Amino acid sequence: MTVRSHVSSPDFPDYRGTMEYFCLGCGQRYPIDQLHYTCPSCGDVFLLEDTGFESLKNVSGAAWRDLFDIRAATKSDPLRGIFRFYELMAPVVEPDDIVWLGEGNTPIVTSSPALSAQLGGQRMAFKNDGQNPSASFKDRGMACAFSFLRALMRKKEMKSLLAVCASTGDTSAAAALYAAYVGGGISSVVILPEGKVTPQQLAQPLGSGATVLEVPGVFDDCMKVVEHLADNYDVALLNSKNAWRILGQESYAFEVAQWYDWDLAGICVFVPIGNAGNITAIMSGFLKLCELGVIAKPPRIFGVQTHHADPVWRYYSQPEGSRVFAPVKVQPSVAQAAMIGDPVSFPRVRHFADKLEKAYGPGAFQVVQVTEQETIEGMLLANRHGHISCTQGGECLAGLKKARELGLIGADETAVLDATAHMLKFIGFQEMYFENSFPPEFGITPDPALANRPEPVITSAEKADLTPEAFTVKAAENIVARLGLARK
């Protein structure tokens, strides 16, 4: 491939790769002419590899940086979002296949000085992935997955396709949104754990016209159902077992690197683990940039888990060389998207964590555990200082505080916290905290100092006894008394 045509032209890239499914268990490879989720030979999970990736190394790291920076200003829809990094993700789809709904390019917002001071002057920032179209990071993966589904349907002349996913809320919202936009014979079904999805998140797939089915239990139960469907019926699975989704979510890493002008010295990235797809993608993305010389070194990666769903933390808390992974029975968590006891992408996490530590030494990848109390108060603390963090973002802030306590990160390092969704999706948990109405199984005791409730200014009965003019004066006088205002 040539540098000139890429760097000097805003046109869609001419590079096309050759993608293959690669099994992490037995090493078998499969073509992408059909959908695969688990290896037919051994049942393990897949990654997707571009067998032409080595040819990308013929372009210098500096040229790649110039190219991606130029594309950041494009007005071409196929290159405006995550496919700005086309050659590094899914370079088998054509421009007309690409779905762009405004996903990607989410800002990294430096924390307020007051919030930083509460953590001993810690340098920190939130990457607001809640500013994606369906208000969560899942749109990154869906944009890639649906772009490939478009390409596959076109090549195979398919008239219809049913897309299915299990979800705690964000996946279903993203899948339903993208299916509704793409249309063309694609319809979506989402399977949710009954009573364990917030009203805001439930409203999203319903509003997008998806068929919404509920299953008693937790996310892991729903995941087993959709895995059975994907193994035995002609459906497209859209959970993170779908390796195309992992590719799309790598864009998070590319954007972090670009935001810091491709210099990640002193950067630490905190990511909630959940089903482990996102942290997998982020590690993979940074490693790709290193291979191409786009960055010199990846940031240190911290995975965070609540003690109510912590199988990955338990695995890495064991002595190296004798670690055994075991699923856990989850307990209720305010970080609903992280309430997963048997993450399907754990083999991918182990794969990339091993690569990071082998190349960059101990501490390149770590996992910290936080409590439910720390998680919800992390969200409240962030948002009281001008952020829009979800509970998973609160989990990351709690993880940063825990890392500080354990001496794993210094104040001179910059912590980038993954706020995976918009806080409004989880507003019910804020309400439960303010009202002190958490069920006992959450193990949360609200701090009254953090509660914030509306206060009445004047009663309806008092208003009824006053003229409109007198009501205005009386209400204003009550507000003056409450706030201690001084007259001009």
Automatic annotation (TrEMBL):
It catalyses: O-phospho-L-homoserine + H2O = L-threonine + phosphate. Pfam families: PALP (PF00291). The modification N6-(pyridoxal phosphate)lysine is found at K138. One of its GO terms (molecular function) is threonine synthase activity. Its cofactor is pyridoxal 5'-phosphate. One of its GO terms (biological process) is L-serine catabolic process. It is an enzyme of class 4 (lyase). Its EC number is 4.2.3.1. Residues 100-417 form the Tryptophan synthase beta chain-like PALP domain. It comes from the Bacteria. Belongs to the threonine synthase family. NCBIfam families: thrC. This is Threonine synthase. It comes from Alkalidesulfovibrio alkalitolerans DSM 16529. The lineage of its organism: Bacteria, Pseudomonadati, Thermodesulfobacteriota, Desulfovibrionia, Desulfovibrionales.
